[in-house]
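Figure S7 source data.
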Amino acid sequence: MKLTFRWYGEKDSIPLAYIRQIPGMTGVVTALYDTKPGMAWKEESLKRQKELCDQAGLAMEVIESIPVSEDIKLGTKMRDEHIQNYIHNIRLVAKYGVKCICYNFMPVFDWLRTTMHYKNEDGSTSLAYLHEDFLKVDPHNLHLPGWDESYSQEELQSLLKAYSTISHEMLFENLVYFLNKIIPVCEECHVNMAIHPDDPPWDVFSLPRIISNEEDLDRLFAAVPSTRNGLTLCTGSFGASRKNDLVHMAGKYAKEGRIHFAHLRNVRYLGDADSFVEAGHLSEGGSLDMARIVTALVENGFDGYVRPDHGRNVFGEDEKPGYGLYDRALGACYLNGLFEMAEKRKRRLL
Ligand code: DNO
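Tokens for the predicted D-mannose complex:
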């Protein structure tokens, strides 16, 4: 596997030089943040980002994300123009050595939590989703942690209205339409598309979500069979649903050559409803068995990119929720250990 770390470009408070010092770190996962979804990326900005990574001795082979515009998801008359821009972006990043693009197809909201500062017993804080708090949220007067600045209330309301006529089936058709246009370009440029699962993996505010479980993935891969059409195995996202068997999914999709990127983090279930808190990476602290997930990946031939995901705020750090340095660095070291064991076992060196 190739260990990577998310880096939000020059505005990220964590310097590349620190990322480089994490044992085993080979590269960063980054994006351009100066262009709206649906628009064409600027070559100068990408070139600069690549130069900074090169100077730091870190590869820039994974983009997370080239966001898919709402017009593409909704299938509006603007979608073909946006898809052309997306194709431009695929060609552009490929020119700078990118091998994998992570994206998602969630309407309006990407990940969703009810608090950014859930207090853990050890004094650290985490992101969490408490179902009873979610039920109190009024979608017509939405103030969600992490989302307040993403849209104006007017934009949000008009988007929610636009989606009111979009069924799961229509959203899926729009995804397939998009993939049928871009995958041939990915084949030509040797770039893998890695769809990120819904987070949490169920419908929110009556918005359809279509990448939540094994059945959804099987349907997606059957509809667009090229293995360039692949997956970001985000254990924390799929794992938020108690119905998803992550060890099985990791093994199955690694074997099928669909997992191009893995976000490996843990979640701990709270109570009986759908509530969960983002735990540290260690199996013991959460509800997912990280050792068995990593073993399933390795045993089934996974050789893609991996990154630690959402860390807690620890050691007094107060960073962008989920994206501080310390806990993600601890997570990276733990993942290194799991992979070393699994890979040596596989090669019968242990
Ligand atoms: C959250 C991330 C997601 C992810 C997108 C991919 O921290 O894992 O925001 O980047 O869903 O498009």
